[in-house]
Amino acid sequence: MPIVRIEMWEGKSVEQKRELVEVYTREMSRITGNKPESIYVVIEEVKKENWGVAGMLCSDKFPDKK
């Protein structure tokens, strides 16, 4: 039972998440030989203010474009 974990900033659409799950499942199955039914994909969305890089909060380093 492979589990693919995706951590990303929040804000992607349901359509984008649906495509991620489809593509990761298909490619994991192709590469590993596991049946798609046995592959789990978990998407965890994180607020930019809870993610840091290079000593800065991502909400400060990458502010949303208005």
UniProtKB/TrEMBL annotation:
- Record's superkingdom? Bacteria
Give TM segment ranges.
none
Annotated catalytic residues: 2
- The enzyme's main class, written as a single word, is isomerase
Q: Does the keyword Isomerase apply?
A: yes
Q: Does the keyword Isomerase apply?
A: yes
GO MF, one term, reads: isomerase activity
Domain 4-oxalocrotonate tautomerase-like intervals: 2-60
The record's section on Pfam families has: Tautomerase
Q: Which UniProt keywords apply?
A: Isomerase
Q: Which InterPro entries match?
A: 4-OT, 4-OT-like_dom, Tautomerase/MIF_sf
Q: Which Enzyme Commission numbers does its entry carry?
A: 5.3.2.-
> What family classification does the UniProt entry report for this protein?
Belongs to the 4-oxalocrotonate tautomerase family.
For this protein, the record's NCBIfam families field holds: PRK02220.1, taut
For this entry, the protein name equals Tautomerase
Q: From which lineage does this chain's organism come?
A: Bacteria, Pseudomonadati, Pseudomonadota, Gammaproteobacteria, Alteromonadales
